[in-house]
Amino acid sequence: MTARPLLPIAEVPPEAAHRVALLRGLNPGELLVHEVYLSIQGESTFAGLPCVFVRLTVCSQRCSWCDSPHAFNQGERMARPLVVERVTSFGCPLVELTGGEPLLQPEVFPLMSELCDSGKTVLLETSGAHDIAPVDPRVHIIMDLKCPDSGESHRNLWSNLDVLKPTDQIKFVIASRRDWDWAAAAIREHKLDERFTCLVSGVFGEVKPVELVGWLLAADLPRVRMQLQMHKYIWDPTARGV
Fold first, then answer.
1. C-alpha dist (Å) from residue 186 to 71, 174, 179, 183, 189
2. The CATH number of 14-234 is which of 3.40.50.300, 3.30.565.10, 3.20.20.70, 3.10.450.50?
3. Is the pTM above the cut of 0.90?
4. DSSP per residue over 70-110, as a string?
5. By the 8 A CB rule, do 60 and 104 touch?
6. What is the pLDDT of residues 13-44, one digit of tens each?
7. 11, 79, 102, 137 - which has most CB atoms within 10 Å?
8. CA distance readout (Å), 221 to 69, 151, 200, 203
């Protein structure tokens, strides 16, 4: 019997190769899925809406403040049609692909298109370290730009800014005043608040919301939107599947 070809995965730097090793055994048509669940959207301009989350396994980055390290190596193989079936079983019009890092798995691209074809409003949360050009233009991209205290700002793929649509969103996670100053400078240099929706949020438990409000109001960036991770105020901040 001829062996089935393994699915190629996104390129990562050599020092991160071991972090994506779990994906090397996937077959075409398969994804490594951490969890699929119904909750409310806790962030972005879609915050507060019921949403089905598809959290994919594996991330090539290790942000200092990551709140989902359980998605680094815990998951099950699922055929793409089964993922679509699981999502549609909830009967919810909004779905988000998150992780981990969704764009590490090539099957996520046809998955997003199939969900769009089925009438879903599809959100993609991505680190910004991987090329977003292949993403279906119907998808709403919510892209991080990693600040210095994440330890991963050197991985920002700045060319993605030329691919993002005006309907997409850029998110900055702020762990310190240094992070805020960096984010404000990036917004001004690239005129991000004129081109996209810009969101800023503090690392939960590290930056007090009132601090971030003060920095934002003093910065004269009236189009930048502060957000809270709503789900961490509703449930225990360490709760999973919410």
1. 29, 13, 11, 5, 5
2. 3.20.20.70
3. yes
4. GGTT--EEEEHHHHHHHHHTT--SEEEEESS-GGGSTTHHH
5. yes
6. 888 888 999 998 899 999 999 999 999 999 99
7. 102
8. 33, 25, 11, 20
